[in-house]
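User: Hi! I have a protein structure encoded as tokens and I'd like to know what sequence might fold into it. I'm fairly new to this, so please keep things simple.
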């Protein structure tokens, strides 16, 4: 069985977060969701657990970072093409996300970033497969 990752993210309004990610084309696994938690399916092995802040506090003794004021994590997702990078970033910005950083275009690598409604930073990156092969 391949290893999976479940990234846990605190959210202020679960329905707003679910609506945002659904508009980006993602689905949710109801088996791992309830009225305070939503399991965002990114791929067969990558999930983001969106937890209402009070529920998130059940898992840590630390304060929850204010993602609007500081960066607690940058979540980077790969994309199959430059066009797919633009599609996802444009959809995020059109549906309640906000800009994060300027686009990066290094020729062999292209990326854009956005913040979700809770200010978590997401990057979407495409790398030219031939450039990756040359590095190997």
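Assistant: Happy to help. Inverse folding works backwards from shape to sequence: for each of the 136 positions I chose a residue that suits the local structure. Here it is:
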């Amino acid at each position: 069985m391949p290893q999976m990752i479940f990234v846990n993210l605190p959210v202020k309004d679960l329905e707003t977060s679910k609506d945002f990610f659904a508009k980006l084309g993602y689905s949710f696994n109801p088996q791992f969701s309830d009225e305070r938690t939503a399991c965002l399916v990114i791929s067969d092995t990558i999930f983001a657990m969106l937890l209402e802040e009070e529920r998130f506090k059940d898992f840590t003794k630390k304060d929850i970072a204010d993602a609007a004021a500081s960066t607690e994590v940058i979540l980077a997702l790969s994309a199959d093409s430059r066009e797919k990078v633009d599609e996802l970033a444009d959809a995020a910005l059109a549906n309640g996300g906000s800009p994060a950083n300027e686009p990066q275009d290094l020729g062999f690598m292209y990326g854009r970033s956005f913040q979700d409604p809770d200010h978590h930073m997401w990057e979407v990156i495409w790398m030219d497969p031939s450039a990756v092969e040359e590095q190997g």
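A useful reference point when you look it over: The longest helix spans residues 82-94. Feel free to ask if any position seems puzzling.
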